[in-house]
């Protein structure tokens, strides 16, 4: 096992050994380098994968949560840290573990910390389908916007101005939280929810693997429209949707050509994957 000692993780109040966030980022970077080498027909350094596999991701099985570092005992934290394992790092975890992380760290986060923290919490709860819990956290995520020009500050009462981290967290809560957007090697996933108080949401100009598309969601349906493509041979395939509590629905799989749309009922839709392919 390879330890990373005396690390300052995303939580700027902290300093400790084997930050799960830091170790996971290192693991992702090492494996990305190995994957890039394979793609370029180069020989990857064997130590990259060996080191990646030996980096520990701390987990307390008795409390079903990830401690922020070795010996962490509930000290006050400044901002989102462990809760970013699920998103944006996409560490696979059970819904209950994600919920434990979110609940625990919400209770020890400085109320005067950066706004992006609550955007990350909203995204985590939306990943679990806890829409009612996510709504007040999403609203809290833009509490740092200051009048009259809507400029973001680091904290609700001031700090750094034009704080892009906070604005970015808010935007990701819309796209990756309520839109459920996740990018994978061979597909892009959508898991749509409506923002509290809205009747419809339109995500415009999403680009993926040479195609551009819009996604329009309301209480009844989700419409995917292919608006542009880099090659006449590219099409967007609506992968097999995943329905709540039922097997996948093969009949809903379809191909979308330029200018075309595909419509799905959102009544029991859990998620759908989009795949770019060639005709």
Please give the structural blueprint:
Layout lengths: L19 H20 L6 H9 L40 H12 L9 H12 L3 H11 L3 E2 L4 E5 L2 E4 L2 H15 L3 E2 L4 E3 L9 E9 L2 E8 L2 E9 L4 E5 L3 E2 L10 E3 L4 E5 L3 E10 L1
Antiparallel strand pairs: 1-2, 2-3, 4-5, 5-13, 6-7, 7-8, 8-12, 9-11, 9-13, 10-13
Helix pairs in contact: 1-2, 3-4, 4-5, 4-6
Q: In total, how many beta strands?
A: 13
- Rg is 20 Å
Helical proportion?
25-40%
**Residue runs with pLDDT of under 50 for 5 or more positions:** none
> Can you tell me the overall shape?
globular
How confident overall, as mean pLDDT?
Answer: 91
- Would you state the CATH class of one domain? Mainly Beta
Report the span from N to C terminus. 47 Å
Strand content: 15-25%
CATH topology of one domain: Immunoglobulin-like
Largest sheet: 6 strands, antiparallel
- Find the structural class using helix and strand composition: alpha+beta
Order of helices and strands: HHHHHEEEHEEEEEEEEEE
Helical run tally: 6
In CATH terms, what is the architecture of one domain?
Sandwich
Structure description:
It is a single chain. The chain is an alpha+beta fold and 279 residues long. The protein has a domain at 189-278: Sandwich (Immunoglobulin-like). The protein has 6 helices and 13 strands. Strands 4, 5, 9, 10, 11 and 13 form a 6-stranded antiparallel β-sheet that branches. Strands 6-7-8-12 form a 4-stranded antiparallel β-sheet, with no helix packed on it. A hairpin with a 4-residue loop joins β1 and β2 (151-155). The protein starts with 19 loop residues before the first helix and ends with a strand. The model has no long low-confidence stretch (mean pLDDT 91).
